[in-house]
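Human: We require from you a protein record containing the residue sequence and its fold in token form, and nothing else.

Assistant:
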Amino acid sequence: MKSNIVKCYKRKIIAPLIYLAFIVLVIFISPIYSILNPTVLDSTKSIKEQYEKNSYIKTELKNLYFTGYTKEWLWGIEGYYYYTNVNNDCVIILLTPDTCEQGKPVIDNITIKGKIYKNSNTESELLSRLAKDLSWDEDGITSTLSGYNINEPATSGFITWLLIIAALGSGIVSLCFVIIYGLFIINPSISTPVLRLKAYGDSNSLLSLAEEELATLPQLATEDMYITEHFFIEVSLYGIAIVPISEILWIYKYSTLHKFLWHHFKISYTLHITASKRLYIKCPKNEKSDIDGVIEYLAEANHNILVGFSEENRIKAEEMLKRK
């Protein structure tokens, strides 16, 4: 049984491992890593040099002056345009409303994370309007300002962080599955199928007894379901389950019609088992004859088992679960 448990979790660990590798790849080839670990912009690099190396930065800015213009997105203000001196370059800075306190005229000192962009048509239009406001020549103000700007909302927007949280969250979940399945592979005695047996006694003793009975000669065996003297055992692609026959309360089967568009392919059958301590087992995609044989044998081995799906049996099973 332990070897079957190891094989089962070796199969199960593949999917989270692949997904975890995919998430790690996405983090490093997408801007996520750069957003979380921006380069500190120091005085030794020009803004152009930093843009060519890593456009996501963290920097301390001093003496920022509000231009009087904002950038709107959808139905709200995305940011406020400021200008300041960055490493001997006069640079346009787009700040979030919270950072600049809704357009504070002068900001003495702030530290922000942002992304460096080349000036686009939006910044060109902004410079044109600034030139008119200041009664400057447009070419003159353009030559004075840097060809790059720093955009804070690009690294702090809701959608940006929603995607980051989704990627990191799903990656953490995958890592948890990899760790848990890895522990089950190393030590099958702490795996879920074995721990479930604790409800019925010493799990290791029950597992050893089930292994011994399965190794000698099962009293009934199908492709992935086995009945020994004291246990029902499922060993399939969908998982492993072990339950004492004496603890089974209710068994029934239901059929599923598999089809694609208007083509009917086949009917598969699922065995449902309800045991005491609220243990529920599903054995999907089996042959009708196999399930019928299992149900018949279990009903003979334990005359207290409810057989077949009905509202009456469901109510009785619930009452039995409450008592046990």
Observations:
- The mean pLDDT is 88.
